[in-house]
Design brief:
single chain; about 120 residues; mainly alpha; about 80% helix
């Protein structure tokens, strides 16, 4: 199976989250923030990957919704990390928003195709 652009971008984003967490540890950021950010940021791609092996359209859409919730949570943690001064690279937030936009479009398309 060739990977969809959503799978590719979410995996690249997860790798970026992992690298950012390494920087945050070196900056002695609170471990609770790093843990939550790492968990939600890497969960997006895992849920997208799982969606591609769903049991029908409804399951596919449900798994993409879970990925969207994780993406929104990750956006929140990124805002906190950036606004608190722990992390300074705004581009990671831009990439999170890009994945979020693609997820929303994918969910809407999948819903339209089920009707």
């Amino acid at each position: 199976m060739s990977e969809s652009p959503l799978m590719v971008k979410s995996k690249a984003f997860a790798l970026e989250v992992i690298r950012a967490c390494r920087i945050l540890r070196e900056a002695r950021c609170e471990n609770a923030l790093i843990h939550q950010f790492l968990r939600s940021g890497t969960s997006i791609g895992a849920n997208i990957r799982e969606a591609f092996y769903a049991h029908g359209k409804a399951d596919f859409v449900a798994k993409l919704h879970i990925a969207l919730k994780e993406c929104s949570e990750t956006e929140y943690w990124l805002e906190l990390l950036i606004e608190s001064g722990y992390y300074h690279d705004q581009t990671i937030l831009d990439r999170c928003m890009e994945v979020k936009r693609i997820l929303i479009a994918s969910i809407n398309t999948a819903k339209e195709n089920t009707q």
